[in-house]
Amino acid sequence: QVQLQESGPGLVKPSETLSLTCSVSGYSISSGYFWGWIRQPPGKGLEWIGFVHNTGSTSYNPSLKSRVTISLDTSKNQFSLKLSSVTAADTSVYYCARRVGGSGTYFESWGQGTLVTVSS
Amino acid sequence: SYELTQPPSVSVSPGQTASITCSGDKLGDKYACWYQQKPGQSPVLVIYQNTKRPSGIPERFSGSNSGNTATLTISGTQAMDEADYYCQACDTSTYVVFGGGTKLTVL
Question: What's chain B's average pLDDT?
């Protein structure tokens, strides 16, 4: 059974770059699937950030596209999120998840989430 | 951009049937899926491809999708079903859209 675990700094200063890593166990990320990031501001709903396919192709939320990079590190079986020029509005719980592709796509497995606060 | 609309809240009595709707333009032409999120926990997939339940999800959870509306139905609602529920347009689009979420209260 695949397991995902987010890691990274819990506090980031405004204007800096938020960097998170998702470690995957129980499945080789180079073998298939899409690997995604979703965030949730405190007390609010889910917002899709983007995902990367095992081939390396990416898709990003248009509202975040100019600031987001998602990439794979197959040697470590990890994928990462970088979000630049952060503001307080980027304070959220960040989840990584595995997305099933095909005729009906969905996020079948999620990490536990990590809270990132943007503050000086 | 595509949008999905959910009611902010739904209330149901224990043992009764709860229905949570998700509306979007021609949503019935796509697949819909649903996630349950309890306080302090990660979302859990409860319905995918409109009507299918992942392993471990109780049979009381069911889904439908037609026209502009997808519906998550919980039959014989239990106190443990109290949670936030999010719909998603689960098609082959390269973009992912979530509904705003519905808080289900069992009282």
Answer: 95
